[in-house]
Amino acid sequence: MKKIWSLFLLLSLFFILGGCIQNNKRNSAPSVKISQKKINRQDSQKIIITIKNKKLTAHLNNSSAAKTFSKGLPKTLSFRDYPGLPEKIADLGYKLPTDGMPKGHAGTRGSIGYWSPQRRIVFYWGTEDYYEGIHIIGHFDTNEYRSIIKNMGNNVNVRITRAE
Question: Which InterPro entries does UniProt cross-reference here (predicted)?
Fold first, then answer.
């Protein structure tokens, strides 16, 4: 009986300690992500996006595609709806490198993306499913972008410049 009781206590202790370790891992993960985001924001390129005289600020990340896109600024692109999807698209006209980037991504609300199969810049005012070929190159800084992007209409010239 003592052996069974000892085994029960040992297994209970094992499960309790295992749960504590898992909790610590879960609790520490968000703080790592938050601090990483701050570091990336400081090292990234701030841009100004002008739509019908309204200026929105955003940041391009440090990806190969974003760095190449930034070198081509200032630039004016004509954005239009992508029917049925929560995004506006503009033909870029040239390929951006995607070296070191994931093969695909979900188009998350507030992201600026590069759709590599058709060489387009994409503003996501809503969330799109994961697709190979979506490469996130930046993000809008404020929430006011959503209504401006969503309601800007079709064939609207958008000026994108680097903030100095």
Answer: Cyclophilin-like (IPR041183), Cyclophilin-like_dom_sf (IPR029000)
